[in-house]
Design a protein that fits this description.
Largest sheet of chain B: 6 strands, mixed
Distance between the termini of chain A: 35 Å
Number of domains of chain B: 2
Strand content of chain A: under 5%
Keywords (chain B): ATP-binding, Cell inner membrane, Cell membrane, Membrane, Molybdenum, Nucleotide-binding, Translocase, Transport
CATH architecture of the largest domain in chain B: 3-Layer(aba) Sandwich
Number of domains of chain A: 1
Number of strands of chain B: 20
Protein name (chain B): Molybdate ABC transporter ATP-binding protein
CATH superfamily of the largest domain in chain B: P-loop containing nucleotide triphosphate hydrolases
Number of strands of chain A: 0
Helix content of chain A: over 70%
CATH topology of chain A: MetI-like fold
Strand order of the largest sheet of chain B: 6-7-8-3-9-10
CATH class of the largest domain in chain B: Alpha Beta
Order of helices and strands of chain B: EEEHEEEHHHEHEHEEHEEEEEEEEHEE
Structural class of chain A: mainly alpha
Oligomer: heterodimer
Pfam families (chain B): ABC_tran, TOBE
Order of helices and strands of chain A: HHHHHHHHHHH
CATH superfamily of chain A: MetI-like
Number of helices of chain B: 8
GO molecular function (chain B): ATP binding
Number of helices of chain A: 11
Structural class of chain B: alpha+beta
CATH class of chain A: Mainly Alpha
Radius of gyration of chain A: 20 Å
Pfam family, one (chain A): BPD_transp_1
Strand content of chain B: 35-45%
């Protein structure tokens, strides 16, 4: 099956976006998920609702607000000036920012569930065994939450790869910069090039199935599923 | 090393206020009903539970009004009711976790063989039985090189055989390290303890030698249905024909069934349950009971409807008898009365 150079490029941009987004989300969500799993503070329910919003909000709504926020008159535009640009919209950086918001719950939830499943006694025992808090986090919490991390990585990548509405609103379709596979597929259909659309769609379908299959297979083997 | 503390704190609806000192080695049993605050006190001593007050250990200040030493800096080892092995590590990994952080004050190999876990080292902790898991947990607590061991009902989930085995290990360890052992099981108290702290409703209501607290009629232990007295004695002859071992307590000879001669450190300890002791005015001549001894009534107390506990002096040691109030009246049991105690069952240890 042959894809055009443009389609390969679109796939590459999508993969790059997914990997960068997921890596940043892992770093951001680790302390956030720990805090949400372990504390009970006023306003926490509202915060969790806001963080879960991308699960239910139409992507175009999210994309619209991001477009405003990242544009020349939003905070994104102000930030862009430092980099010598007018706006963060229609740039790869803008796409990353949008994807961070859009995919956050898919990384946050598995981590939160995994952290919540760790018994407080395990942490107490580590403390009386001589482990300081940071040491405990790396030597006990992260290894015991490894299923959660696996879920977070796969869901984060898969969900970012599948992004369409947000990308269309804030990314447009600049080849090599913001044109990802799902947008390229849309353009093939618009142009009536069903053969190319079929090939690209098949690649996305197979990749998604493979990722989820790997996730479920691994979880089955570990015998403890941590899904959002 | 000596421990001294004066602590108070609120956990949920329960208020805890306790002070005590702990001097030498040996096991101190923290005994009391469920919900009396025993585990909470232990967690406070470990630094796992916030509280007010002061904890001093030797010349170290673990807690004052200004400073709290975090748990990872207190030189202690701990066991919980559940083994709480680190689930992501093997047995060996669990031991190494502590050694790496505390330094190996105790030799790994000797601790491993003492806890009899040589064959378990490569196993995943998920595959261990309850007894095996607690032996690993004990070894891990020892490898912290503790100057104080805090054990929170570590044997409550185990069957009798495993329990006895671990109690023996803990007794041996207590020769080297002071142990505070939380339990509400009288059998564990009897097996382990030379010292006992009794806890009720968040307070330590009595502290003392186990055998004295057990025999005190105004304390909670003598009022229990399973009240038991501890006597100390010297080993005497062994009767080969009838397989009986003599133990001398206050110049009186107790005969114990034993398949072979008993050896061990003296004084040996005898356990006699109050419900296994009956009283009579004259020494019966034709009783099947082997152990009949002259005693003097030291004190008497009604416990529950129609029941009384009698404290009996045997030399300077104390025996308990649980009898009906009617018998107490008809036998004219009063302090100073001279009677005979018939002891139906005696256990060693």
């Amino acid at each position: 099956m042959m894809l055009s150079d443009g389609d390969w490029l679109a796939l590459w941009v999508g993969v790059k976006l997914a990997v960068v987004t997921t890596l940043i989300l892992l770093v951001v969500c680790t302390p956030l998920a720990w805090w949400l799993a372990r504390r009970r503070l006023p306003g926490q329910a509202l915060l969790e609702a806001l963080l879960a919003l991308p699960l239910v909000l139409p992507p175009s709504v999210l994309g619209f607000y991001l477009l405003i926020g990242l544009g020349p008159s939003g905070p994104g535009g102000w930030l862009a000036q430092w980099g010598g640009a007018r706006s963060l919209a229609f740039s790869f950086t803008g796409l990353v920012i949008g994807s961070l918001v859009y995919s956050l719950p898919f990384v946050l939830q598995p981590l939160k569930n995994a952290f919540a499943a760790i018994e407080p006694r395990q942490l107490d025992m580590a403390a009386v065994s001589g482990a300081r808090p940071m040491d405990r986090f790396f030597s006990l919490v992260i290894p015991q939450a490894r299923h959660g991390y696996a879920s977070a990585v796969i869901l984060g990548i898969a969900h970012t790869l599948g992004e369409f509405g947000v990308v269309l609103m804030i990314g447009g379709s600049l080849a090599g910069e913001t044109r990802v596979a799902s947008v390229a597929l849309y353009e093939h259909v618009e142009a009536g090039d069903y053969a190319s659309a079929h090939r690209l769609a098949a690649v996305l379908l197979v990749a998604s199935v493979l990722m989820l299959w790997a996730l479920f297979r691994w979880q089955r083997k570990q015998n403890t599923g941590v899904m959002p | 090393m000596s421990l001294a503390f004066s602590l108070s704190g609120q956990v949920g609806s329960c208020r805890l206020q306790a002070q005590a000192q702990l001097a030498a080695n040996g096991v101190t049993v923290l005994f009391g009903p469920s919900g009396s605050g025993k585990s909470t006190l232990l967690r406070m001593l470990a630094g796992l539970q916030d509280c007010d007050g002061e904890i001093r250990f030797g010349d170290q200040l673990w807690q004052t009004d200004d400073v709290t030493l975090p748990p990872w800096q207190r030189p202690l080892g701990m066991m919980f009711q559940e083994p709480t092995l680190f689930r992501h590590l093997s047995v060996r990994g669990n031991l190494d976790y502590v050694v790496k952080r505390r330094g190996a004050a105790w030799d790994l190999d000797s601790v491993v063989s003492q806890a009899r876990i040589e064959d378990l080292l490569g196993r995943s902790v998920e595959t261990l039985s309850g007894g095996e898991a607690q032996r690993v947990a004990l070894a891990r607590a020892l490898l912290a090189g503790p100057q104080l061991l805090l054990l929170d009902e570590p044997l409550s989930a185990l069957d009798h055989g495993h329990k006895q085995e671990l109690l023996k290990m803990i007794s041996d360890i207590a020769r080297k390290v002071p142990v505070i052992y939380v339990t509400h099981d009288l059998d564990e108290l009897l097996t382990l303890s030379r010292q006992v702290w009794l806890m009720e409703q968040g307070r330590i209501v009595a502290r003392g030698k186990a055998h004295e607290e057990l025999a005190r009629l105004d304390g909670p232990l003598a009022q229990r249905g399973d009240a038991t007295a501890l006597l100390y004695g010297e080993l005497g002859d062994y009767d080969n024909r009838d397989h009986l071992q003599a133990v001398t307590v206050a110049q009186q000879t107790f005969w114990l069934p034993a398949a072979q001669p008993v050896s061990g450190e003296e004084p040996v300890r005898l356990r006699i349950a109050a419900r296994d002791v009956s009283l009579c005015r004259q020494a019966p001549q034709d009783s099947s009971i082997l152990n009949i001894h002259p005693v003097q009534v030291a004190a008497l107390r009604e416990v529950g409807p129609g029941q009384a506990v009698v404290q009996l002096a045997l030399g300077d040691q104390r025996l308990l008898a649980r009898i009906s109030s009617r018998s107490a009246r008809e036998l004219e049991v009063f302090p100073g009365a001279r009677l005979y105690a018939q002891v139906k069952a005696v256990a060693l240890g």
